[in-house]
């Protein structure tokens, strides 16, 4: 936790730089209804920045944060640590446990931010609720590899990026989502600002 806080501080920037005008909200649009979201799922391939942005959003909103990696059974972690990509059968139970946690957090009117790769539409269907919004961390292979290479001490090694990109089905216009691109060069603070503005959750 402390390590993550320090890591975010170092990529936060001063926190005062404005988001460049050309990015604005045009590339950060939400499809779907206007209801305020109750669950934000930060999705994307390994190393795209889900955990860091998810924690930033949760801190800003004062919502609980759920780290999807923590819900993998030991067999899945063993596979990924050995460089073997997961298959659908490895993922269904994991996704169902995340959906159950989401429902626990939101059933009494609460809200939650979750980091989960949610690479395929069918995976997102398990997490999708009327007030779920997906924040999709996109980027060129080079940008994503740079982020992944900067991370140490994680079971997911950068060699897994190719299989993750091959599995990825980006959210389409029918899915309520926002897209953030690593190539925009934003600090995590700026990314969070775009998301909160885009979702009408800025205070
Ligand atoms: N906006 C950003 N700018 C630069 N580096 C970032 C940004 N967001 C995340 N990173 C870095 O990318 C790496 C992967 O981030 P992480 O949140 O662990 O990804 P994921 O949870 O998607 O696997 C980390 O080293 C993190 O510090
Ligand atoms: O479905 C999967 O193949 C995994 O869930 C994977 O997509 C996820 O990325 C891992 O949990 C690694 O963790 P990071 O995404 O944090 O690298």
Automatic annotation (TrEMBL):
GO terms for molecular function: ATP binding; gluconokinase activity. It catalyses: D-gluconate + ATP = 6-phospho-D-gluconate + ADP + H(+). Its EC number is 2.7.1.12. GO terms for biological process: D-gluconate metabolic process. Pfam families: SKI. Gene3D superfamilies: P-loop containing nucleotide triphosphate hydrolases. Pathway: Carbohydrate acid metabolism. Coiled coil: none annotated. Signal peptide: none annotated. Transmembrane segments: none annotated. Residues 1-11 have a biased composition (Basic and acidic residues). It is an enzyme of class 2 (transferase). Keywords: ATP-binding, Gluconate utilization, Kinase, Nucleotide-binding, Transferase. One of its GO terms (cellular component) is cytoplasm. InterPro entries: P-loop_NTPase, Shikimate/glucono_kinase, Therm_gnt_kin. Residues 1-23 are annotated as: Disordered. Belongs to the gluconokinase GntK/GntV family. This is Gluconokinase. The lineage of its organism: Bacteria, Bacillati, Actinomycetota, Actinomycetes, Bifidobacteriales.
